[in-house]
Specification:
This protein is mainly α. Helices cover 50% and strands 5% of the residues. Helix 2 (17-35) packs across helix 3 and helix 3 (63-76) runs antiparallel to helix 4.
């Protein structure tokens, strides 16, 4: 998942890797805590502080969720001149996910 998100960002090299990892986690929290969206898989990404090596054992492969997280990262990393556009795109995508039972009605999300 890390590689997919990073590929959608206007960055090269590994200078932003730590921030990308942090923003992926923040996006996932925003989606799940504030929108009650259930992610169809786990996000498990770590970065070794000494070597900078990224370990990604995520099982989340849903392209819609990955794209939504990438939009979050695009608006949070650096100072993008199109921040307002990215914010609208993120909020729109999040709203669409929230309205879809495919992202809100997983068995683990049902009470009872």
């Amino acid at each position: 998942m890390f590689a997919e998100v990073k590929a959608m960002l206007p960055v090269s090299g590994d200078a932003y890797d730590a921030e990308i990892v942090m923003q992926i986690r923040a996006a996932a929290l925003d989606l799940t805590r504030t929108s009650e969206i259930v992610l169809p898989g786990e996000i498990s990404i770590s970065r070794d502080a000494e070597t900078g090596e990224i370990t990604d054992t995520s099982t989340l492969a849903d392209e819609l969720i990955i794209t939504t997280i990438a939009i979050w990262c695009q608006m949070r990393i650096g100072n993008p001149p199109n921040y307002d556009q990215l914010l609208k795109a993120y909020e729109s995508q999040k709203g669409s996910l929230r309205l879809s039972s495919e992202y809100t009605d997983y068995p683990g999300n049902q009470e009872g």
